[in-house]
Design brief:
Blueprint: H1 9-30, H2 32-39, H3 43-65, H4 69-92, H5 98-123, H6 125-128
Helix pairs in contact: 1-3, 1-5, 2-3, 4-5
């Protein structure tokens, strides 16, 4: 049995997604001032985006407790929205420094990877539920 065919694959990915939301939310909200100084991203943007991740994490954890196609699609679409927003920030937002660009790109890639894993898990939902 491959890892993606494991019955708990989707739940595990969703739990990882929720946990990374909490960790990133804590970093961005509690460390907004320091992170802004390091990245040249606006402190208010970091703080607000960080705070927004806590209710998102709670929702993802709720979906993980009883994965449904509708719930998982909401998570996937939210992740896609986060990636698009991150790329738009780099295209049209304030000019971060190289570390700021790397910070935005790395987290966008991680979120995109989670979304892809969630879609893979969604395709196997009857086996995962």
């Amino acid at each position: 049995m491959s890892l993606v065919d494991h019955p708990r694959f989707l739940r595990t990915v969703l739990i990882i997604d929720a946990a990374t939301c909490v960790a990133t939310g804590a970093l961005m909200s509690l460390g907004a001032t320091a992170l802004a100084g390091l990245t040249r991203l606006p402190e208010t943007l970091l703080f607000g985006a960080g705070l927004s991740l806590f209710p998102i994490a709670a929702f993802i954890a709720l979906v993980a407790s009883r994965p449904s196609a509708a719930g998982v699609w909401v998570v996937v679409l939210g992740n896609v929205g986060w990636v698009i927003g991150s790329l738009l920030l780099l295209a049209a937002g304030p000019a971060p420094n190289a570390l700021g660009i790397a910070f935005v790109i790395v987290q966008a890639i991680a979120v995109a990877m989670l979304a892809e894993l969630e879609v893979i898990g969604l395709k196997r939902l009857p086996a995962a539920a």
